[in-house]
Amino acid sequence: MKEKNSVSYHTYTPENQQGINRDKIIDFLYHHLDEFGDKREDIAKCMDYALSSAEGKGGAVLEARENNEVVGALILNNTGMSGYIPENILVYVAVHGSQRGKGVGKKLVQLATETVSGSIALHVEPHNPARHLYEKMGFTNKYLEYRLHR
């Protein structure tokens, strides 16, 4: 899908992985998630889960490209649950600094919502400026999250 601003968007699912360059997307997310990111191997595991056709797994990987370079990426995982836990979790989304404020992140999130069925959850740090985008798009904050790390 081609956009006016010369950014093209691509969606990859377990059924459609044609044209994906996993390493480029993983490297992009690793470098552009900034302080909100994870280790490269964790991003790779998340992508493997999203693109797995195994029962209970799956999801989607979306990328935005300009001049054949990744300028935005998103990974969404299916939870395999429904009702008491949302069916999907938006795990990673990042946009290149040169594209921020131009609608690339919003478009990636919109496409992700159109790709899957069911509710979508996401975790966002309180000081992350993307919080405002999610709120404008209809995401709500119902819970505080607590974790016990071992």
From TrEMBL:
UniProt entry keywords in alphabetical sequence: Acyltransferase, Transferase
Coiled-coil region list: none
InterPro entries linked: Acyl_CoA_acyltransferase, GNAT_dom, YpeA/RimI_acetyltransf
SUPFAM superfamilies referenced in this protein's UniProt entry, alphabetically: Acyl-CoA N-acyltransferases (Nat)
Database matches in Pfam families: Acetyltransf_7
Domain N-acetyltransferase: residue ranges: 7-150
GO molecular function: acyltransferase activity, transferring groups other than amino-acyl groups
Database matches in PROSITE patterns: GNAT (PS51186)
Protein name: GNAT family N-acetyltransferase
Organism for this UniProt entry: Pontibacter burrus
